[in-house]
Amino acid sequence: MAAKTILIVYAHPEPASFNAALRDRAHEALEGAGHRVVVSDLYAEGFNPLAGRHDFTSVANPAIFHYQTEQAHAARHGTFAPDIAREQKRVADADLILFQFPLWWGGPPAIIKGWGERVLAYGFGYADGLRYDTGVFRGRRAMVSMTSGGTTARFGAGNAYGDLQSQVLWQLQHLGLEYMGYELEEPFVAYGAPRTDHAGRLEYLSQLETRVLAAAAKPVDRSLTITNPLDLVPDGAWKQQR
Amino acid sequence: MAAKTILIVYAHPEPASFNAALRDRAHEALEGAGHRVVVSDLYAEGFNPLAGRHDFTSVANPAIFHYQTEQAHAARHGTFAPDIAREQKRVADADLILFQFPLWWGGPPAIIKGWGERVLAYGFGYADGLRYDTGVFRGRRAMVSMTSGGTTARFGAGNAYGDLQSQVLWQLQHLGLEYMGYELEEPFVAYGAPRTDHAGRLEYLSQLETRVLAAAAKPVDRSLTITNPLDLVPDGAWKQQR
Known about the structure:
CATH superfamily of chain A: Flavodoxin domain
Distance between the termini of chain A: 49 Å
Radius of gyration of chain A: 18 Å
Largest interface: A-B, 49 and 49 residues
CATH architecture of chain A: 3-Layer(aba) Sandwich
Largest sheet of chain A: 6 strands, parallel
Number of strands of chain A: 6
Structural class of chain A: alpha/beta
Number of domains of chain A: 1
Strand content of chain A: 5-15%
Oligomer: homodimer
Number of helices of chain A: 7
Order of helices and strands of chain A: EHEHHEHEHHEEH
């Protein structure tokens, strides 16, 4: 089995949280198996989740800030701000991306949403016509691991929260990761985390270890990745939006 | 028809954006009809979308930051930070909340997600057992208005983005607003906004005006609102999560 590079995108404000324990268990297990692990600890690194002109060291249009226009310009000229360039390199290096977060208001924390908006920019993560089965990161894998206050009974079509994959995680998994071409692992959920006792938490840690090791053992094909997506987009294909 | 109070929660970094035009059209139409309108312009107001101890002027547990524990403590003692207290008052005053944003990576911008995490706190927006048909803000209304680069053909079950309400907007609408007890209006979507010409945009503005005036004309019943949700939760019902 070839050693892989795994990026853990982690979001929780408390270093002693159960989410931190899950992150550490995944990290240690993957390194122990010979893989290379990089962690984007978004809260600890003070990641700014807000889109803006600070995303770029260049300006395509000083009169009006149109986000994708500026992103395309930065992708063509290598002028993303250092924090975004750093995260994009981590993404580009990763065979497998593992997200670890608590489910807040039915989705990942805002800091993860903002990480996606800024890092997975037009011209880096996607471009016109390059999505899903023609996505930029085809051949690579992604996996969601999360905690939820909800028990298993809350999830499922017709239950209070709805189906985990086709509803709750639809935004992140389908409209985000699959859109970019990633092949998804089944999500890992520590259900009812606040009310799970010590033994139950040890069991969750053990289950996550098994899951991430299995995910990392699967083949990836980096030859499918589109390294310069804008080369495939005719100039002017993108019309500016106000 | 009774005059209503409408909160517009608005997120776009560019003051000259089409989203700003939609916000302004809704604002002017509602005021013209005699309603009171308050706008939370999240980017312009520099709203901080990151959860943390800065959310509170109190500390329930200095050893470990557990978000809902601190939120419950602040709700009981009136110790939310000024920015959160201001937004909570706006929410509490509003008969109708209108969200206006561009769809980024399949969802609202991170600044709106973070607004929800911080403002719609445990003890203010929900509490144990108070959700959906027992939600805190029953009797009030909410409506999503958004722009999307995608055309109508991208939406719908089985299409690239999936069904608008049961998949794309599930997090915000069902796991957020309906969870809190709000009655939802049909979402308003300006499809294919970047590629819509001037006449098409005027038509969208006109359609939104019609929609928000109709929504504001519908009855609300503020007597159904639970003003002190934690009074209904036994002490200790909430177990601390690490």
